Q: What sequence folds into this?
């Protein structure tokens, strides 16, 4: 492992203060994590990229009263404030229990203040004999060599370096749309392998960077949320993202992306973006 990159995005710290029974008697999970510098996003070494944050929420949902024969099909994350590179606590609960469908809810907090809220739908897996139907074209081949991308003025020694990128079309923070293959160079949590859901979520929040249409040296563009919907679980380490950004004057921006692996497309990403003038330096 590259000595400049931590061994994982997060180090587990054990049960959180909120672990145990919820206020209404429902089960609630609580777990604490130390964020490593690998979580830092491109804007600041002290603020996290939302990819690892989404992965950590997805991991918590998968461990919340799991049921055999089911899978997490959709995760929506509301980003209430920037997430610091610091100790975090995650709590989850089942809002709507069921054997075919269940709605899960979770929060991420720093020093008692909620910074992220998320929901997830857990559904029963479809029967194996259901005919498969996918309308998206096959993804482009994985490039043989890693290509450099331009990151002028950005913090690159966190999440951007903890991931391996192989752009096919376009480049980070250059005029999009763009397509890239990517995989994580470190696990989400130290000492454990990533699940397929975690791998998808860690990549998904990069959609607005891959599909960027705006000059980030002139405009502030930040997503307020992230929705990832998967019709099947991804296979393998390398995932392909094709992303585009739509922007409207006096409106905002919307980023959309498809997710694929070597077997084809398996899900979609949606981000609501705020666009504003950069703060005066």
A:
């Amino acid at each position: 492992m590259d000595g400049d990159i931590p061994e994982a995005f997060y180090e587990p710290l054990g049960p959180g203060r909120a672990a145990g029974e919820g206020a209404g008697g429902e089960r609630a999970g609580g777990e604490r994590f130390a964020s490593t510098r690998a979580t830092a996003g491109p804007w600041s070494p002290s603020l996290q990229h939302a990819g690892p944050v989404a992965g950590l929420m997805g991991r918590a949902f998968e461990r919340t009263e799991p049921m055999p024969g089911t899978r997490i099909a959709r995760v929506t994350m509301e980003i209430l404030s920037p997430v610091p590179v610091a100790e975090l606590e995650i709590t989850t609960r089942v809002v709507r229990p069921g054997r075919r469908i269940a709605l899960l809810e979770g929060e991420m907090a720093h020093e008692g203040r909620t910074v992220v809220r998320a929901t997830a739908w857990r559904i029963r897996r479809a029967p194996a004999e259901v005919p498969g139907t996918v309308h998206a074209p096959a993804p482009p081949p994985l490039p043989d060599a890693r290509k450099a991308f331009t990151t002028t003025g950005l913090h690159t020694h966190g999440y951007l370096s903890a991931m391996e990128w192989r752009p096919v079309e376009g480049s980070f923070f250059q005029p999009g749309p763009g397509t890239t293959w990517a995989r994580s160079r470190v696990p989400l949590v130290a000492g454990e392998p990533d699940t397929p859901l975690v791998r998808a979520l860690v990549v998904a929040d990069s959609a607005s960077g891959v599909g960027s249409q705006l000059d980030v040296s002139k405009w502030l563009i930040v997503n307020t949320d992230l929705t990832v919907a998967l019709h099947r679980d991804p296979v393998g380490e390398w995932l392909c993202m094709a992303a585009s950004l739509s922007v409207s004057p006096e409106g905002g921006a919307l980023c959309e992306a498809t997710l694929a692996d070597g077997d084809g497309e398996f899900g979609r990403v949606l981000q609501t973006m705020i666009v504003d003038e950069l703060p005066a330096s």
